[in-house]
């Protein structure tokens, strides 16, 4: 038992000695490594060879995507590694020290620059990052930064759009013969990604361009979360669009037709301002919702104009200005369409028989009341009041023919205005449906 305790104490003491010795060896190793080290010279013995630098990109978050300015702000981490031939040591000579971690300012770095910045052209790094070096000379450097890059938006399908933004990174100042840039991964990493409330990441890709110098391209495809804009803007616009034709259902005597149509027109102009504030100043490409709003404003302008003409038509007096013959034909044609059957001109005539005093006295109160009711309601069928011979109940066909040919059609301005109202309601409601369907088909 005593021997076992002595052995355990010896092992514990030796372990403490090893730890202390390792710290001392680390200090000694740092002194030996950087005794003749120059961070201004590329870390290869043969300076005619290029330093191979491996680089992958990890997106931490998408802070903002500004469609108007055409910029994207992302927080990224670069996984950069290369071999420094000046930082190789025998680990057994330094207490089995296989790796060291120290500040980046001590060694040569392939400083990376964003080639499509939206503001300043600065290296993607800061003095606070560290590097890790292994005994075989492999260097691992993980700089991070908030990048603001240019990104040309395609808002043609707004708010159902998706954008592909590019981050172009290059070891600026070194030619491809001095630094050979390599991208091990074919996609961008999202290891520590925080989801954005407005955008979802749906894809990524990488590629490398090699010419006089190397550039790494990282493509990030994002899709807008459209529910907020759909509820707050698109759906109210559609509701206004379908409410607009209902001005032709309002009675003429209500006095609200003009104010109703103008209010809807003003509402469309307000929504055009809201949408234009979210759109870039460029005209290529234009958003489908802009065309949709423009078509709705055009329909609303036509509705306001037609409504004014309709109120003028309704206010005309039949005694001062009778309905012209061509307009009566239009009225008959529209009635044919809505009734689904042919309505002849004979059904639009009041067959009045002007005979002697007895025939006129034969009009009872009921017949007169029916005639006046027919005129007020604008019916297409009117009662025939024909002369009847005493002692003979047969109709005098010659008299009927004469009255029918010379009696004018009873079509009032009120009847014309109400019928054209029906036509306008169906027409503009159909145009609104077509415009809305075309927008959603193109936007999706």
UniProtKB/TrEMBL annotation:
Q: Where is the Neurotransmitter-gated ion-channel transmembrane domain?
A: 234-440
Segments forming a coiled coil: none
Name the InterPro entries on file.
Neur_chan_lig-bd (IPR006202), Neur_chan_lig-bd_sf (IPR036734), Neur_channel (IPR006201), Neuro-gated_channel_TM_sf (IPR036719), Neuro_actylchol_rec (IPR038050), Neurotrans-gated_channel_TM (IPR006029)
Origin superkingdom: Eukaryota
Alphabetically ordered keywords of this record: Membrane, Receptor, Signal, Transmembrane, Transmembrane helix
Topology relative to the membrane: Multi-pass membrane protein
Which stretch is the leader sequence?
1-20
Localization recorded for this chain is: Membrane
Q: Where is the Neurotransmitter-gated ion-channel ligand-binding domain?
A: 28-225
Q: Which GO terms describe its cellular component?
A: membrane
Q: Which residues cross the membrane?
A: 229-251, 258-276, 288-309, 423-441
* Major site of localization recorded for this protein: membrane
One matching Pfam family, short form? Neur_chan_LBD
Q: Which SUPFAM superfamilies match?
A: Neurotransmitter-gated ion-channel transmembrane pore, Nicotinic receptor ligand binding domain-like
Q: One GO molecular function term?
A: extracellular ligand-gated monoatomic ion channel activity
Q: Any idea what this protein is called? A: Neuronal acetylcholine receptor subunit alpha-10
């Amino acid at each position: 038992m005593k021997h076992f305790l002595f052995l355990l104490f010896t092992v514990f003491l030796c372990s403490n000695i090893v730890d202390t010795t390792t710290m001392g060896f680390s200090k000694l190793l740092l002194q030996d490594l950087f005794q003749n080290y120059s961070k201004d010279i590329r870390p290869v013995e043969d300076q005619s060879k290029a330093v191979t630098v491996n680089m992958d990109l990890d997106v931490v978050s998408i802070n903002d995507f500004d469609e108007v300015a055409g910029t994207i702000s992302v927080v990224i981490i670069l996984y950069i590694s290369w071999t420094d031939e000046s930082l190789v040591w025998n680990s057994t000579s330094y207490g089995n020290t296989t790796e060291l971690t120290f500040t980046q300012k001590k060694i040569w770095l392939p400083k990376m620059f964003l080639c499509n910045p939206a503001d300043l052209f600065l290296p993607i790094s800061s003095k606070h990052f560290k590097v890790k070096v292994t005994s075989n000379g492999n260097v691992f450097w993980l700089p991070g930064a908030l990048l603001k890059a240019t990104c040309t938006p395609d808002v043609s399908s707004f708010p159902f759009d998706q954008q592909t933004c590019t981050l172009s990174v290059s070891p600026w100042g070194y030619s491809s013969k001095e630094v050979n840039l390599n991208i091990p991964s074919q996609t961008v990493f999202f290891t520590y990604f925080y989801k954005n409330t407005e955008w979802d990441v749906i894809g990524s890709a990488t590629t490398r361009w090699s010419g006089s110098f190397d550039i790494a391209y990282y493509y990030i495809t994002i899709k807008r979360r459209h529910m907020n804009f759909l509820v707050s803007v698109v759906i109210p616009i559609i509701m206004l669009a379908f409410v607009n034709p209902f001005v032709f259902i309002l009675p003429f005597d209500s006095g609200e037709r003009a104010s109703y149509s103008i209010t809807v027109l003003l509402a469309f102009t307000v929504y055009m301002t809201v949408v234009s504030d979210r759109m870039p100043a460029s005209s290529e490409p234009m958003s489908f919702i802009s065309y949709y709003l423009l078509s709705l404003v055009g329909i609303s302008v036509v509705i306001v104009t037609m409504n004014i003409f309709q109120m003028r038509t309704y206010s005309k007096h039949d005694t001062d200005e009778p309905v012209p013959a061509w307009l009566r034909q239009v009225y008959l044609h529209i009635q044919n369409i809505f009734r689904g059957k042919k309505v002849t001109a004979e059904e639009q005539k009041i067959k009045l028989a002007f005979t002697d005093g007895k025939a006129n006295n034969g009009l009872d109160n009921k017949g007169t009341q029916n005639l006046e009711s027919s005129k007020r309601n604008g019916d297409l069928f009117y009662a025939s009041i024909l002369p009847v011979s005493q002692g003979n109940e047969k109709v005098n066909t010659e008299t009927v023919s004469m009255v029918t040919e010379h009696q004018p059609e009873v079509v009032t301005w009120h009847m014309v205005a109400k019928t054209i109202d029906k036509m306008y309601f169906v027409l503009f409601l159909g145009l609104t449906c077509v415009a809305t369907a075309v927008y959603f088909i193109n936007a999706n």
